[in-house]
Sequence to fold (508 residues):
Amino acid sequence: MSQATFEEMSASDFFYRNRDIAGLSNPSRSIFVAIREAVENSLDAAESQKIPPNIYVRLSFESEATKETQVYKLRVEDNGCGIPSRFIPSAFGQVLYGSKYKLKQARGTFGLGGKMAVLYGQITTHQPVTVTSSTGQEKIYIFKLMIDIQRNKPIILDRKVLINKDNWRGTIIEFTLEGDYLRAMPKIIEYFKQTAMVNPYANLTFVDPKGRLYKFTRATTTMPDPPKETMPHPYGVDVELLQRLIQITEFMNMSTFLRGHFHRVGEITAQKFLEFAGIPANKNPKKLTHEEIVRLMQNLKKYKDFLPPDASCLSPLGEELLKAGVTKELNPEYLVVHQRKPSTYAGHPFIVEMAMAYGGGVPKRSNFVIYRYANKIPLLYDEASDVAYRVIANVNWKRYKVHPDMPVAIVVHICSTKVPYKTVGKEFISDRPEVRREEANAIREVARQLQHFLARQEHVHNEKKRLGIFSKYLPKIAEFSTTLAKETKQPDIEKLLKSVQKYGTEES
Ligand SMILES: Nc1ncnc2c1ncn2[C@@H]1O[C@H](COP(=O)(O)OP(=O)(O)OP(=O)(O)O)[C@@H](O)[C@H]1O
Ligand SMILES: [Mg+2]
Fold:
C-alpha cells in the first residue's frame, strides 16, 4: 500500500486551484469579475473619503489567444484615497490581505477580489500587474508586481517614484488577462448601469475593446456619510474572539473589559450582565479559565437586555439618493422608496432599502425586473438562489393588484458590516430569517403604495372615460332640448360638465 503524503498549501495556491469559488469560472465570467472587483475597490477608495468617485475603465484588445478567447488589457483609474507605498505590493500580491477586515460597511470584505483578478491575469497571460498610486502627497509610486503563488507573496519586478507635481490622488491598475469580451459584454454593461443606479454620485466611464464609450454621469454630489468603525456586539461573539480580546486587553477587571471591547456595553449594562452571569465585576479577565470563557460566551448570547447594535457602522444610501439613482437610470412613471429601521442577525447590524418603480423607462418583461444590491454592489448572477427572489415570489401580488407582466422593477438593497453572502464570489444573499423578515416587510410597504398609485390611476382613467362620454353627448342633448323647448339660446355645457367632474383638471 502506498503511503499518504501530506503537504501545506498557501492561500494563493488554494484560490489558484479553486478559482471558481471567487466567480472566475470561465473566460466570459472572468472578465466580468475582473472589472467588477477593480471598480468596487475604486468605489470603496473614493467613498471612504467622501469624495464623489470618478472611475475610468478601459478594456483594450491585445491579441488573439484561442478560438474563443482574446487577450485584453484592463486599466482602471480612480480618484480614491490611494494606497501608501509600503502596502501596495501586498495589497495586490498577497491573497487574504486588505484594509477592510474592520467592523464597518465596505464593498470589500475578504481581501481577495482584486488579487483574484490579478492572479487570473497572471496565470492566463504570464504578465505582471502595474499599480500606480498616490495618497495626494508629494510622490507617486509605480510598482510592477507578480504573485508568488506557492509562497503567497508579492514579487516586485520594478518600482519607480515620480514627483507628484499636480497633487494627484488615486490609483491606476493595469494588467492583461484572457477572456471572451463579446460574451461578457451584456453583463458588463448591465453591471455599470446597475452600479450607477445605487451610486448616483459617481461618474463611471467605460471604454470597450471596440472603442465604444459608455458614460454614466453623476446626478448629485451628495454622498452618504462614511460608516464609522464599531466594536463587536455581545450577541455576535464566539470563544475564539473572546480569547483574542483577553490576550490583547489592557483592562484589568471584567467590568472595564466588557465596556472597552464591546459595542453597546456601558457601566450599568456591564454591572447587570455580570450579576446575571455570576462573574465578580473586579475579576481579572486574564484569569478566566477556558470553561469560564465558554460560559461567558454562552451568557453573552443569553442575556436579553443588550441594546441592538446602532447603525453608525453602516452607510445606507438613504431614500433621497436611492430615488435619485433609480430616476437617473430608469426614469419611471412612478417610484416609491422605503428604508427599514436597522436590524440585526447574529449580532451584525443590517439595513434593508427597497424601491419599486413602475412604467416609464422600466423594462416590461414576463416577470418583475429585480435589481439586487449588497453594500451598493449589484448582484447579477444566481438570482433564484437569493433570499430576495424568494421573498418576492412569496408575496400575494393579486392582493396588491400588481401583475408580474406589468412594467415593474424592484430594487432591494441590504447593507451590513457582514453581508450574509453564500460564496466569496458575492453573488447572492443567504436565507437568514431576520433578513427575510425585513425584506418581506419592506416589499409589503412599497407594494401597498404602488397599489394606491395604480388604484388612483385607474380611477382617473375611468373618470376620463366618463367625462369623455358626457362631453360627446351633452352638446347633442343641449341642441335637441333647445329645439324641443323652442328656445334659441343653448344652455352653458361647460358649467354642466364641470358639475359632473369629480376631480380637478390637474388630476384628470
Ligand atoms: N483602487 C484602490 N484604491 C485604494 N486601495 C485599494 C484599491 N484597490 C485595492 N486597494 C487596497 O487593497 C486591498 C486589497 O484589495 P482586494 O480587492 O484584494 O480585497 P478587499 O477589497 O479588501 O476585499 P474583497 O476580497 O472583498 O474585494 C484593499 O483592502 C484596499 O486596502
Ligand atoms: Mg476588493
